[in-house]
Design goal:
The structure holds 2 protein chains of 2 kinds. Chain A is α+β, with helices and mostly antiparallel strands. Chain A is built from 3 helices and 11 strands; from the N terminus they run H-H-H-E-E-E-E-E-E-E-E-E-E-E. Chain A is 26% helix and 25% strand. Helices cover 30% and strands 47% of the residues of chain B. The chains are: A alpha+beta, B alpha+beta. Chains A and B meet through strand 10 of A and strand 3, strand 4 and strand 5 of B.
Chain lengths: 212, 135
């Protein structure tokens, strides 16, 4: 005796189900068409097009990607800063806005003459410090830095510094940099030596290089 | 908890231009309450030289004099990180303090190390010292 669920055409229950499903889809398509015919197509207004585009979902995805890209870029790659103070005059003026390239020393070591951002206290490896020092590197690890008659001497050799514009009368005995230390100083050397924040700091304190 | 004390220290040390003598005196008392009786403030700032304040009385005198001599004072602690000792009774906070007085746009910025100890169940500042960022 044949099974009760067999179809008369011999294809069995599976074939029947497929037919039913096809009918369901046909109904669905029919209903959609009916709805489209009854309701006039809602065309997005110009304001909607301007604000969220013709496809809001795609616009939302673009916004999310853009925001994520900006967050990563301006937190881990280019750090926006505002210069405050006069110690880097006339190269960097007070209230000038710039960026620090945090990846500048990813493959290369800091060089003499580079203007860099130096961290004060360490807020953690991935945290972004809110306050930084902006100084120029004049002494590299192992070198000695001295000032005589307003000029910097590295290992006893006069350092050519074309970026200095103000007169200077600094006098200071040689200071020896350690194997991991750099010597930092600002460009405004018209300030008294004691009032100008300068000196040695470890490589790990350097956050990055000023973009321009 | 310790960072909360640092935030309270900043809020207490900040004076608005409208704060009168009573408010300032109250703030001095509140400020002193954050320190232990044997607290030491040791600082070495360019232009001011090295100096230290020992005990609450000296800190109170300096705070009262400082509060009275400025129209307004803004104190902000930035990038603060706390390390609590293994015994949970001591902690060290490293931070950067930014101070500006009056309406002037000039400000002072200094790296600080603040030591705390738990005394009578409450965190008290036992030592504040400046750190030379560039040696």
């Amino acid at each position: 005796m044949p099974p009760a669920t067999s179809a008369p055409n011999g294809f069995g229950a599976e074939a029947t189900q497929i037919i039913v499903c096809s009918q369901l889809w046909a109904d669905l398509r029919f209903n959609l068409v009916v709805q489209d015919m009854n309701i006039p197509a809602a065309r997005p207004g110009w304001l909607q097009i301007v604000l969220i585009g013709r496809r809001p979902a795609a616009t939302l995805v673009r916004i999310v990607v853009l925001v994520a890209l900006c967050l990563v870029t301006f937190k881990f790659v280019l750090l926006p800063i505002r210069v405050e103070g006069i110690s880097m005059e006339p190269t960097y003026h007070d209230r000038r806005v710039d960026c620090i390239n945090r990846l500048a020393y990813w493959r290369y070591e800091p060089q003499r003459g580079d203007v860099v951002a130096i961290r004060f206290s360490d807020p953690g490896r991935f945290s972004t410090p809110r306050a930084m020092l902006l100084k120029r590197i004049i002494g590299l690890p192992g070198e000695s830095v001295a000032f005589h008659d307003g000029h910097a001497y590295i290992n006893g050799q006069l350092l050519d510094e074309p970026y200095l514009k103000f007169s200077c009368d600094w006098e200071h005995e040689p200071i020896q940099c350690g194997p991991d230390q750099y010597y930092f100083v600002g460009d405004n050397r018209s300030m008294p030596f004691d009032l100008h924040m300068q000196g040695r700091a470890e490589r790990g304190r350097i956050i990055g290089k000023v973009l321009r | 908890m310790v960072l909360g004390k640092i935030a309270k220290l900043a809020a207490t040390a900040t004076i608005g231009p409208g704060d009168g003598a009573i408010t300032r005196a109250t703030k001095v008392s509140t400020l002193i309450g954050l320190f232990s009786t044997d607290a030491v403030i040791s600082y070495d700032i360019a232009g001011l030289g090295a100096r230290s304040l020992n005990g609450r009385d000296e800190i109170r005198e300096s705070a009262a004099g400082g509060f009275a001599s400025v129209k307004s004072l803004s104190v902000r602690f930035q990038d603060a990180t706390a390390q609590v000792g293994a015994d949970q009774q001591s902690a060290v906070v490293s931070c950067t303090v930014r101070v500006s007085a009056g309406d002037s746009q000039d400000f002072g910025i200094q790296e600080l190390r603040v030591q705390f100890q738990k005394r009578d169940g409450d965190w008290r500042i036992t030592r504040v010292e400046t750190v030379k960022t560039l040696q």
